[in-house]
């Protein structure tokens, strides 16, 4: 029964992750941590959870990117610029996670989950900074209604921010989209659909690099990965389908509530252990 649950977890996490550009790790990591505390998978360590989650993100990112390519919403150049920062950050994060025991990991990850929930709450209320065409890299996107959206960013600033986000991704196994999408929308003026699609493209590439580091460190449980990957591929396609047809406000609200509960529980476990 627990293996069926893991397959369904891969579907649900990747569908949500692909829908709003999170990547899915923000659901997979706490779920596996919780299963470990219940004794269902007592042998799995935080390091293995992070490595397995990031390996699964390769397939979530590949599947969702393939779907978004069909809709022409992926900004490849921006994704590659961000990758310059996120790749080394992810490798460093993968190296750092080996120093965390389960209780310390629960505490820090719980704090991170609460922070992500706050970011998701505020991202639709904060107005993007005024767009300047001389900011460096500039692009224009025409949506399906014919409206033209101009956006751009300073490449150095983009690489610096993605370096920090890559580190968080490598240490927590969350893909980085939970912070990269708001950054692209609020700081770099990306249209939301382009931000989500480009985030998934970047998650696909950065997860390959971060996963390679975790493989070298022996941080991947291949049995759990084999159960998660099929669901991740299917779930990502569901997320792409819903992204074109649904307003994600209700889903984001539900996810935010779930993240608050998860974050508080993880912090409690980290502090009281």
TrEMBL record:
Keywords from the UniProt entry: Cell membrane, Membrane, Transmembrane, Transmembrane helix
Membrane topology: Multi-pass membrane protein
Keyword Membrane applies: yes
GO-annotated cellular components: plasma membrane
Pfam families hit by this protein: TauE
Top-rank taxon, per record: Bacteria
InterPro entries xref list: TM_pro_TauE-like, TSUP/Inactive_protease-like
Residues spanning the membrane: 7-36, 48-68, 80-97, 103-122, 156-189, 195-215, 222-242, 248-268
Subcellular location(s) per record: Cell membrane; Membrane
Family membership noted in the UniProt record: Belongs to the 4-toluene sulfonate uptake permease (TSUP) (TC 2.A.102) family.
Name this protein carries in UniProt: Probable membrane transporter protein
Organism the protein comes from: Neobacillus piezotolerans
């Amino acid at each position: 029964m627990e293996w069926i649950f893991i397959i369904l977890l891969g579907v649900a996490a990747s569908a949500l992750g692909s829908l709003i550009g999170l990547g899915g790790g923000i659901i997979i990591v706490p779920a596996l941590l919780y299963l470990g505390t219940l004794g269902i998978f007592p042998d799995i360590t935080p390091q293995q959870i992070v490595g397995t989650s990031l390996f699964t993100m390769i397939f979530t990112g590949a599947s969702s990117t393939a779907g978004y390519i069909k809709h022409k919403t992926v900004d490849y150049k921006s994704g590659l610029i961000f990758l310059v920062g996120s790749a080394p950050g992810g490798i460093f994060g993968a190296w750092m996670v080996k120093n965390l025991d389960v209780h310390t990991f629960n505490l820090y990850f719980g704090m991170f989950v609460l922070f992500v929930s706050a970011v998701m709450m505020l991202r639709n209320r904060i107005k993007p900074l005024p767009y300047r065409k001389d900011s460096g890299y500039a692009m224009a996107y025409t949506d399906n209604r014919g409206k033209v959206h101009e956006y751009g960013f300073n490449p150095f600033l983009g690489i610096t921010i993605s370096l920090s986000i890559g580190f968080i991704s490598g240490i927590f196994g969350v893909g980085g989209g939970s912070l990269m999408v708001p950054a692209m929308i609020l700081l770099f003026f990306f249209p939301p659909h382009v931000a989500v699609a480009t985030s998934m493209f970047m998650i696909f590439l950065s997860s390959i690099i971060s996963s390679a580091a975790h493989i070298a460190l022996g941080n991947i449980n291949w049995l759990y990965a084999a159960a998660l990957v099929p669901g991740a591929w299917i779930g990502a396609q569901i997320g792409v389908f819903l992204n074109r047809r649904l307003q994600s406000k209700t889903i984001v609200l539900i996810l935010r509530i779930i993240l608050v509960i998860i974050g508080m529980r993880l912090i409690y476990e980290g502090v009281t252990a």
